[in-house]
Design goal:
Length: 163
């Protein structure tokens, strides 16, 4: 018996729940929920995020050449849903939700400090094969809450309760 899904959309699952944070040239911070995130290279370490060009954060990443991928844990649903349903064009989402952050150590973008993992990235390439522009970023730094690191600095993914 042949198996065939009716839809081709979002056929790779599960999709990681990620928040991409960025900063514009005027120093304004923003963050948005991004459904398209993936590893793309081991050496050098590179990742990809897909952002629709009409999104407010798109120009920030395009102009600054950097972004942070933040992985939220359970208990951050309210903030995650808010960041995914509002536009930074209309308000300062960080102020509206009291989003805790600090400056990136390697790039000019905010790290969301309530997320247990934050990955600082510099854009090395982008392409727009369809609805989303795919930004390929070289991983500059990976910040992980100490409780999720083993004695050798390895990430204990199974101990995290990510969204």
């Amino acid at each position: 018996m042949k198996k065939m899904a009716k839809s081709k959309l979002l056929c790779v699952q599960p999709v990681p729940r990620t928040i991409v944070s960025c900063r514009d040239r005027q120093g304004r911070n923003n963050a948005l929920v991004v459904g398209f995130t993936a590893n793309v290279s081991l050496d050098p370490a590179m990742v990809m995020v897909g952002i629709v060009p009409t999104r407010f954060s798109h120009h920030m990443v395009k102009e600054s050449g950097c972004f942070v991928i933040n992985l939220p844990k359970k208990g951050y649903e309210k903030e995650y849903n808010y960041l995914g349903s509002r536009s930074g064009r209309d308000e300062d989402k960080f102020a509206a939700m009291n989003i805790q952050w600090k400056d990136g150590e390697c790039i000019n973008a905010p790290i969301l400090t309530d997320c247990p993992v934050s990955i600082e990235c510099s854009v090395v390439e982008s392409t727009q094969p369809g609805t989303h522009e795919l930004f390929i970023g070289k991983v500059e730094a990976v910040h992980v809450d100490e409780e999720y690191l083993d004695e050798k600095g390895g990430i204990l993914w199974d101990k995290m309760d990510l969204l």
